């Protein structure tokens, strides 16, 4: 199955280690005084996290050559160029924590709202990628990528929209995570001394990508279609450590068309549609495999006649099921825009493949939708989405006409986490196998960084844990 592993490329900026340059500090121990002349900072690591809008640089881990006194640390003792420092504490490991503890690392947390925090860029604006053929169709659920920036002459995004089989990448880019930190105040050690202020900046020389680094990258050569599909795979921790006899759910995430033919890891850093299922919090509740392909071509467009990678995706799911301890009765699919369309299409073409689907900002022809009445679905669209919204209405009407209950609700996309949790519970009370939630007009663009509601929908929809928990409670419906 596996013939190649692609390693995640991190920042390669080389740090100049800080040196105190002979400064003297009163009450410092002899050990600390010696360190002030030799250089007490060993290096710094950039820490990234993926949000709905994409991957952001959110913290630094500054490593010292001795243990730092957490109780004496002051936030003003560190400055990071062009960033806002929000929290400073010591730790024994280069990891974020709720509370600090004495250790060799000083954790410098940064505001994710800073202009310089976001590392992912679509190139055409919109903060997370989208599928629009032209600015005038910016709320469409079309499978063509977002428009190119002014002056672009590419034939992909911005040139009328690619069709099935188009391999032209969009202008999306991922900036390497890098930052420069300066110790602007003294730092106390556990020995009772202090490391003096150091004006020498330290640039990060390594990167830790939260959750993203837990995925591995492979390629799948499908003998049935002749297609090659690159993909990311997260393997549950207990499976990695050995858990004989246990079988796990699998979640398939499929991206929108703005990511075609860019990089294997792009579905992991564009937004949280893949990584949310693999977060420590979600894995603690629902341990599962997470599969995120990166398509080298547009798989389906608004003609709804998919290319061979559609079939290859189904074959990949079966291959992963056979290779790992996957529970065939608890396989789930989800996707945004093109990926949502693929999820619907796969559920129709392969009715026994998935137990449930989470459909975000996508649609499928209503005249083909009758088989979906036998599926467990949760559908989320914005009322401002000129294709996914009427498309969702049409699909759920067909499902209801088949005699299947459809739970419906209208939500404010700007709701708090607690409000969304209540929204999910209220919709679940309708006890329907198909749930249809629409974001109220105007609320998506007001609460996302996207320039239109279509792209903004998945920035919000994948950040609602209750829906993910509902998905995992579903098993394959039979006898309907």
What labels would you give this structure?
single chain; 480 residues; alpha/beta; Immunoglobulin-like; Rossmann fold; nine-stranded mixed beta sheet; five-stranded mixed beta sheet; 11 helices; 26% strand; elongated; disordered N terminus
Can you give a write-up of this model?
It is a single chain. It contains 11 helices and 21 strands. It is α/β, with parallel strands linked by helices. It has 2 domains: 30-117 and 176-209, Immunoglobulin-like (Sandwich); 213-472, Rossmann fold, CATH 3.40.50.
The largest sheet is: 9 strands, mixed
CATH architectural group of the largest domain: 3-Layer(aba) Sandwich
CATH topology of the largest domain: Rossmann fold
* Beta-strand proportion: 25-35%
Mean pLDDT across all residues, rounded? 86
Oligomer class: single chain
User: Could you give the count of β-strands?
Assistant: 21
- The rough form would be described as elongated
């Amino acid at each position: 199955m596996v013939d190649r592993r692609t390693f995640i490329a991190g920042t390669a900026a080389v740090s100049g280690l800080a040196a105190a340059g002979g400064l003297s500090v009163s009450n410092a121990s002899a050990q600390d005084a010696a360190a002030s002349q030799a250089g007490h900072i060993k290096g710094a690591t950039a820490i990234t996290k993926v949000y709905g809008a994409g991957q952001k640089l959110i913290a630094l881990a500054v490593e010292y050559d001795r243990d730092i006194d957490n109780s004496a640390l002051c936030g003003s003792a560190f400055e990071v160029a062009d960033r806002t420092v929000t929290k400073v504490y010591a730790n024994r490991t280069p990891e974020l924590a709720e509370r600090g503890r004495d250790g060799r690392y000083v954790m410098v947390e940064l505001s994710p709202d800073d202009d310089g925090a976001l590392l992912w860029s679509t190139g055409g604006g919109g903060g997370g990628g989208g599928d629009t053929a032209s600015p005038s169709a910016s709320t469409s659920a079309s499978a063509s990528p977002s428009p190119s920036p002014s002056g672009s002459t590419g034939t992909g995004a911005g040139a009328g929209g690619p069709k099935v089989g188009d391999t032209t990448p969009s202008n999306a880019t991922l900036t390497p995570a890098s930052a420069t930190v300066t110790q602007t105040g003294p730092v106390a050690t556990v020995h009772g001394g202090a490391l003096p202020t150091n004006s020498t900046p330290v640039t990060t020389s390594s990167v830790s990508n939260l959750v993203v680094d837990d995925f591995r990258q492979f390629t799948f050569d499908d003998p049935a279609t002749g297609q090659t599909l690159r993909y990311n795979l997260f393997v549950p921790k207990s499976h990695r450590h050995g858990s004989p006899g246990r079988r796990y759910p699998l979640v398939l995430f499929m991206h929108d068309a703005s990511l075609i033919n860019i990089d294997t890891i792009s579905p992991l850093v564009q937004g949280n549609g893949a990584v949310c299922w693999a977060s420590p919090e979600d894995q603690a509740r629902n341990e599962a495999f997470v599969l995120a392909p990166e398509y080298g071509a547009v798989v389906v467009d608004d003609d709804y006649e998919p290319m061979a990678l559609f079939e290859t995706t189904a074959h990949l799911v079966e291959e992963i099921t056979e290779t790992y301890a996957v529970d065939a009765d608890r396989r789930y699919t989800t996707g945004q825009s093109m990926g949502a369309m693929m999820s619907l299409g796969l559920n129709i073409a392969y009715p026994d493949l998935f137990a449930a689907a989470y459909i975000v900002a996508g649609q499928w022809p209503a005249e083909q939708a009758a088989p979906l009445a036998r599926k467990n679905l949760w559908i989320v669209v914005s009322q401002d989405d000129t294709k996914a919204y009427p498309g969702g209405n049409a699909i759920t009407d067909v499902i209801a006409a088949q005699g299947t209950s459809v739970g419906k609700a209208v939500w404010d996309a700007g709701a708090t986490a607690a409000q969304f949790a209540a929204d999910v519970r209220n919709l679940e009370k309708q006890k329907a196998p198909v749930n249809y939630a629409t974001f109220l007009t105007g609320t998506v663009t007001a609460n996302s960084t996207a320039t239109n509601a279509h792209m903004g929908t998945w920035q919000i929809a994948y950040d609602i844990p209750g829906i993910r928990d509902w998905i995992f409670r579903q098993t394959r419906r039979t006898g309907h």
